[in-house]
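hey can u run this one w/ protoporphyrin IX containing FE bound, need the structure tokens asap thx
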Amino acid sequence: LLWILRGRTRKPGEPPLVKGWIPFVGKALDFGKDAHKFLEEHKREYGDVFTVRIAGKYMTFIMDPLLYPSIIKQGRQLDFHEFTNKVAPLTFGYPPVLRTAFPGLWEQIKRSFQLLQGDHLAPLTESMMGNLMLVFRQDHLNGESDWRRGSLYEFCCSVMFEATFLTIYGRPATGVRHGGMDRLMNDFHKFDNMFPFLIAQIPIWLLGRTLAVRQKLISYFLPQHMAQWTNTSQFIQRRAELFEQHDELKDVDKAAHHFAILWASVGNTLPATFWAAYFLVSQVEALKVVRQEIVDVLRDSGVDFSNSSDIMLSKEQLDKLVFLESAINESLRLSSASMNIRVAQEDFSLRLDSDRSVGVRKGDIIALYPQSLHLDPEVYDDPQTFRFDRFVQDGRGKTDFSKDGQKLSYFLMPFGSGSSMCPGRYFAINEIKQFVCLLLLYFDLQLEDGQNRPGLDPSRAGLGILLPSSDIRFRYRLRSV
Ligand code: HEM
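ok here u go:
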């Protein structure tokens, strides 16, 4: 007990240790309030590597991005999955995927992620385009040519949530759109608001109606419902098949796994789409250049855009949109705050670079916090400013960023790193591109006057793309082309 209250003391060779004055909780409250500020202040005081006691855990932060490669490549002694294996089941409500209880399942799940990438990306992207067009056409392109008003985050969410859902899980047995999408999305937002508490392992029964909301969301994905759906992605079909091979999984467990993918596929994509759209609409020059680039790519493939026809942008065409890709990367740089976590598997000396190592203990968490890199003025000049062409050089994607005169191997990390990197990243970028293309091609867009750039809601700090602290009012009107 005394050890828990006092905590450990620093041994020779270990990084500086910051414990805070509240036993057990340590620095959790300060960290939770503003993680980026907290880490920058500690970096000034303790240097590039320090250990902080946060909610009973010892977390060693590596702040210098030049040291990132040595952490990311340390596979053997630093494990990522120990953390997700524990936290994801509690959050989404399925039993832990332990090797003893479900032989082979873990590896099968990992393999299923390949169905989001490589050759599988083209059909996914094509299907997403059709679904985005469907939702745009039926909900927003219905002939009116007057200015309409809306809230940008709400607009982005409703289109992207439904189109992504249709692409990943498929269409209903009859008709082309599922009934009750609004209700599903509302429940999703209620769950998502509680997500940081669940990840922090606060018991779900302490979180009001969250358990009931989660049960409702999970029940949407019960096998008897999903069996009716058509055009389901290969990714979900494969996962449904492999869950069937495990008799130990109950129907509600299978549904909970499918629900976890719903969170993974829209939880970050919705705010990321908002930020990309917001920044582009807020800068006249950026909007003009990106819109022209899209029109040119279409024209190069023989399509003269007119608002009465549906458009199709293939994966190859999307790859050519370098300014749009740069604008999306720039908005991810400004809005992402995902922490990269590894757990030390034994006491060992962690090599940082050719002449520096630090001691870490078994069970310690080693953390990278790329938001500090994304907002580092030495890497990104004037880091708080949105520059849509920051990631373009000589007409191609720019990858040359440095610190202290040394080229950085990792300069933009919204999708994590190494073994824990997001398997949906290529699909995510493509679907955001497709959404922005439709928005810019079909509509004239304006932000309503008197609104400041929305702040970043800190409640998801460490967990991905931050939500805007308030929505933005905008006007849109069908373009006359
Ligand atoms: C994991 C970011 C979109 C599927 C992750 C991780 C991050 C991330 C940071 C965890 C990495 C770590 O903990 O180190 C994002 C962002 C997205 C996005 C910023 C959008 C802008 C998507 C989409 C899908 C997807 C569209 C699927 C269609 C997944 C899955 C995992 C994951 C399945 C878990 C991987 C594992 O367990 O190894 N994502 N993601 N993500 N993401 Fe994404």
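DSSP finds 19 helices and 17 strands in the chain. anyway lmk if its weird
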